[in-house]
């Protein structure tokens, strides 16, 4: 059974990530979503909040995948998990250069680990967690791009004083 790791910061999980997770879980039997602490990105959500958001998403969509948090080198973590495949999403040509560099560096660090790229649905090709946070921070609706509980979490972060009902935009 091939165990695969889908790493990312997931700050927060978006429909684009979900699309990749669904594709990966159709191909592989054992998918682990590995949430990187990524302190360098100064995440809005703590790693345990990000983990909870991903776990709720998987539960709601009945996707069979595991969720973990890591703070080491990715290849080290992949080895520790006894996996040998890293899944990455390629949204657009602009992702390629960075992904290519990362895949080759990871291969240099460990020849036995392969990176497999999956392409999300084209309607998600412009999505990123930063753009979602930017819209939500300014009070815009992000319902089309993230699950409802993620939108609520964003509004709770940015507008903690709003009554609970007002945290969900149309
Ligand atoms: N749909 C929508 N958005 C997507 C997406 C998809 N399918 N795939 C990626 N994105 C977005 C992410 O949300 C992220 O948005 P943001 O920059 O606005 O937050 C952006 O694209 C970049 O994502 P990604 O390339 O996955 O970066 P990341 O920071 O989330 O994850 C790690 C990168 C964690 C995999 C990488 O830093 C890592 O491996 N870290 C561990 C340390 C290590 O080993 N470093 C050496 C690597 S050679």
Q: Quick summary of this structure?
A:
Helices cover 42% and strands 16% of the residues. The protein has 170 residues and is α/β, with parallel strands linked by helices.
Describe this structure in words.
- The chain is an alpha/beta fold.
- Helices cover 42% and strands 16% of the residues.
- It contains six helices and five strands, in the order βαβαβαβαβαα.
- A five-stranded parallel sheet has the order 3-2-1-4-5.
- The chain is globular, with a radius of gyration of 16 Å.
- The relative contact order is 0.19.
- The model has no long low-confidence stretch (mean pLDDT 94).
- Bound molecules: coenzyme A.
Described by the principal axes of the CA atoms, the overall outline is: globular
Overall mean pLDDT score?
Answer: 94
Which ranges are low-confidence, i.e. pLDDT below 50, for 5 or more consecutive residues?
none
- Order of the strands making up the biggest sheet: 3-2-1-4-5
**Proportion of strand residues:** 15-25%
Provide the list of bound ligands, each named once. coenzyme A
The main β sheet shows up as: 5 strands, parallel
Cα gyration radius (Å): 16 Å
Helix proportion range: 40-55%
Beta strand count: 5
Class computed from helices, strands and strand pairing:
alpha/beta
What is the overall number of helices?
Answer: 6
SSE string: EHEHEHEHEHH
CA-CA gap between termini: 42 Å
């Amino acid at each position: 059974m091939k165990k695969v790791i889908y790493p990312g910061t997931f700050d927060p999980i978006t429909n684009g990530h979900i699309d990749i997770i669904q594709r990966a879980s159709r191909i592989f039997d054992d998918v682990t979503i590995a949430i990187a602490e990524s302190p360098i990105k100064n995440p809005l959500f703590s790693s345990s909040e990000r983990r909870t958001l991903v776990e709720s998403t998987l539960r709601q969509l009945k996707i069979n995948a595991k969720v973990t948090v890591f703070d080491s080198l990715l290849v080290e973590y992949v080895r520790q998990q006894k996996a040998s495949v890293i899944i990455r999403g390629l949204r657009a040509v602009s992702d390629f250069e960075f992904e290519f560099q990362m895949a080759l560096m990871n291969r240099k660090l460990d020849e036995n680990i392969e990176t497999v790229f999956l392409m999300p649905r084209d309607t998600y090709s412009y999505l990123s967690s930063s753009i979602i946070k930017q819209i939500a921070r300014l009070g815009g609706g992000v319902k089309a791009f993230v699950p409802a509980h993620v939108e609520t979490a964003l509004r709770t972060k940015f507008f903690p004083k709003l009554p609970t009902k007002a945290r969900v935009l149309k």
